[in-house]
Amino acid sequence: MTKAELKKRVCEAIDKRAEEIIAVGDSMFKNPELGYKEHKAAALVEEKFKALGLDYRKGLALTGLKARLPGRQSKLSVAVMGEMDAVVCHDHPNADPNTGAAHSCGHNAQTAMMLGAAFGLVDSGVMNELDGDVVFFALPAEEFVELDYRQKLRREGKIAFLGGKQELLKLGEFDDIDMAMMCHLASNHPERQMLIPGPGIGSTGFIGKTIKYVGKEAHAGGAPHEGINALNAAMLGLMGIHANRETFKDADSIRVHPIITKGGDLVNIIPADVRIETYVRGRSIDAIMDAGQKVNRALQAGAMAVGAEAIIDEIPGYLPLFNDEQLATLFASNCAELLGTAGVIPAEPMAGSTDMGDITHIMPGIHPSVGGVTGSAHARDYLIVDPDMAYVVPAKAMAMTVIDLLFDQATVGREIKEAFKPAMTKDEYLAMWENLLVIK
Ligand SMILES: [Zn+2]
Ligand SMILES: [Zn+2]
Question: Which end of the chain has a smaller Cβ tally under 10 Å, C or N?
């Protein structure tokens, strides 16, 4: 059978399950869960993996699932991945009333399209004519949030990294994978289009920080002179960060965006315990570390001004994303088949970050964006308006790309693997975080 015939079969199989794929996406959209807590999503993925008769493992990095579908030979392993976690957006119409979690980053669509690709590749029987394996991966915790909660998980030894892919990498779950693909929904992009990343840096990377200002409590009316105001220290720290912004170079895309997560205990007590979380983002590790030093200096200066103490915890963030050019070109040609050439446009480099960046330092990977959505990512107005585009088309595009990679001795896939020059090995990756940051 020709490659074109295999692709036709896989797309027909996906079309037959379109309703089910959309139902998965909708169900997750209505049941948003934050990272490392994606229990309902994981149960849904498990149900589908089981029904497909896939050989899978679960509970990876707490909530992740991984299934392997073998080809007639195993010359290459390609991962088709989907994230499961939501963000907090209390005002989103589908926000969980208890946790505020909402799928306003569209990760529900990622799980749906990953399963869609699995339906197509299993139902069509095309794997009997392909010379490599596919790994379907349901991934936890892409959003780098709830730092205190995840730091607690780290202290308890349940995770070592705050990002799900990072944790899975450390656990060796990427050791048996040669290349990885996933799609992310776009922002404010209702059109039936795929946004394909060009060569070079596709996103910023970052480090995380949690800051605890320790002051001294005192009666705010009766004896403020006996206290040390940790909130004032924090405010001066934040002002110090702002005073450094003019030193950030445009080309480095530095972003520092702190929030105060605790501003005091009671209004009539001088605050003695104030907490801040922040990222320091940038387009290179050097730029991130340089800005990170300035941020620390400013935060400490705030403490020094009022005699408080600043305890800064450095947390491994994510690395900048590098999309593999050949993989992106293959994927784009499949998208053009599905959507026409007007349906394929270049993506802007992301100013956000993703732990897919970490993966692309070690193996070839792509992270294109998908239309069919209105509203801004992470905002209350984020909605999927074209479920076929958001859920079904990317499932087809990924399954078709798997066929390209694994067809005829997996020649194309093996070429991509051989041409890829990893920025670092897994061991170097783990050592880098240990050397750059104190992992507590
Ligand atoms: Zn997001
Ligand atoms: Zn996202």
Answer: C
- Our count of domains for the chain comes to 2
- List, as ranges, residues with CB under 5 A of the ion ligand 1: 105
Residue 179 lies in a domain: yes
Non-local (6+) Cβ contacts of 322 within 8 A are 200, 201, 202, 357, 360, 361, 365, 423
**How many Å apart are CA 76 and CA 314, to the nearest integer?**
37
The answer to whether 246 touches 263, Cβ cutoff 8 Å, is no
Residues 352-411 pLDDT 10s? 889 999 999 999 999 999 999 999 999 999 999 999 999 999 999 999 999 999 999 999
Give distance in angstroms: CA of 111 to centre of ligand 2. Answer: 12
Q: How far is the CA of 145 from the centre of ligand 1 (A)?
A: 10
CATH number at residue 304: 3.30.70.360
Rounded to the nearest angstrom, the distance between the alpha carbon of 183 and the centre of ligand 1 is 13
**Å from CA of 184 to ligand 2 middle:** 6
Global pTM reads: 0.89
- In the predicted model, is pLDDT for residue 270 greater than 50? yes
CA 153 – ligand 2 centroid, Å: 22
CA of 352 to the centre of ligand 2 (A): 9
Mean pLDDT of 306-312: 97
How far is it, in rounded angstroms, from Cα 149 to Cα 160? 13
At 437 the pLDDT is 65
The rounded Å distance from CA 48 to ligand 2 centre is: 23
